[in-house]
Design brief:
This protein has about 290 residues and is of the alpha/beta class. Helix content is about 40%, strand content about 15%. It has helices at about 5-15, 40-50, 70-80, 95-110, 125, 130-150, 160-165, 170-175, 195-210, 235-255; strands at about 25, 60, 85-90, 115-120, 155-160, 180-185, 215-220, 255-260.
Length: about 290
């Protein structure tokens, strides 16, 4: 890493301490060609993220064992002062056990200070891959493991769509988690960019209304810069920027927030803010 990058990163870390909420991006474990990211590639992602306007030093990960995510991402996070909302896949027993073991090994190796919180599963209820009772058991299982490792201060959640959270069939999961991780996309709700702000905050309010008084974190939201139209919902650089600097910037001031996504330029429908060279696709400066 060049000296200039280190100086910029150090400045951004100091600036980030002024924020009342965790703010960052979802970051995937795969490169555009499908290969797994190395430690150096994770570190490059975290440096690029911290150098963006807003000085983002937190990231949400989907997996722990897949692509050796934690084995590579955690040392990169520690090297760059990045903290992680850890994800564990929960859709089948063998996968879940491998994920839990990877988290166990990461904590035993690196301690716990790099952890923001732990999410058991991602949109499993929305997809119908599991049921509420199974998730509750897994959430309590992971919480017990964290307690046994001396990490009882790390909260445990589940991430799902706002539509899954407001479904009464999933109320037991709300009771089990320490906070709710909510995904909401006005784009997929056929909202125009002019209506997107209202559509998104209604989904947040609806989720808060069933949250049993618990915090609601915004774990995914964003607007694509390319892809297909969903009725009046049109992807474009201009619309992606407008959504980020209105809805996203307000979210940073109201909740722990992880935008979707840092980079996905290879996807047919792309939400990322960085291109293939880790350069910003548009200005994400918040002006309020």
């Amino acid at each position: 890493m060049k000296t200039a990058s280190l100086l910029t990163l150090s400045a951004s870390l100091l600036s980030s301490t002024a924020s009342a909420y965790w703010k960052g991006f979802n970051v995937g474990a795969n490169n555009a060609d499908g290969s797994c990211k190395t430690k150096d590639q994770w570190q490059a992602d975290f440096v690029a993220m911290a150098n963006l306007p807003g000085h983002f030093t937190s990231a949400r990960l989907y997996a722990s064992s897949d692509c050796n995510t934690l084995a590579n991402a955690v040392p990169a996070a520690i090297a760059t002062g990045t903290t992680l909302l850890v994800g564990l896949w929960a859709e089948d027993g063998n996968h879940y056990n491998a994920e839990k073991q990877a988290l166990l090994q990461a904590i035993q190796t690196y301690g716990k200070d790099w952890i923001i919180a732990v999410s058991v599963g991602s949109e499993d209820l929305y997809r119908g891959d599991t049921d509420a009772n199974t998730l509750v058991s897994q959430i309590n299982d992971v919480r017990g493991m964290l307690w046994g490792l001396g990490a009882s201060d790390k909260e445990v959640t589940h991430v799902d769509t706002w539509t899954a959270w407001v479904d009464p069939a999933n109320a037991a999961v709300i009771s089990a988690v320490d906070f709710l991780g909510m995904d909401g996309y006005p784009y997929f709700q056929n909202a125009s960019i002019d209506d997107a702000w209202n559509v998104f905050w209604k989904s947040v309010d609806d989720t808060r209304n069933v949250s049993q008084g618990k915090w609601v974190w915004i774990t995914e939201t964003g607007w694509p810069y390319k892809g297909e139209n969903y009725g009046p919902a049109e992807p474009s650089i201009g619309n992606a920027q407008a959504y980020f600097t209105s809805t996203g910037c307000q979210a940073f001031d109201e909740a722990h927030t992880f935008m979707y996504t840092l980079s996905d330029y290879e996807a047919a429908t792309s939400f990322g803010v960085l291109d293939e060279n880790r350069n910003p696709l548009y200005d994400i400066t918040c002006h309020f």
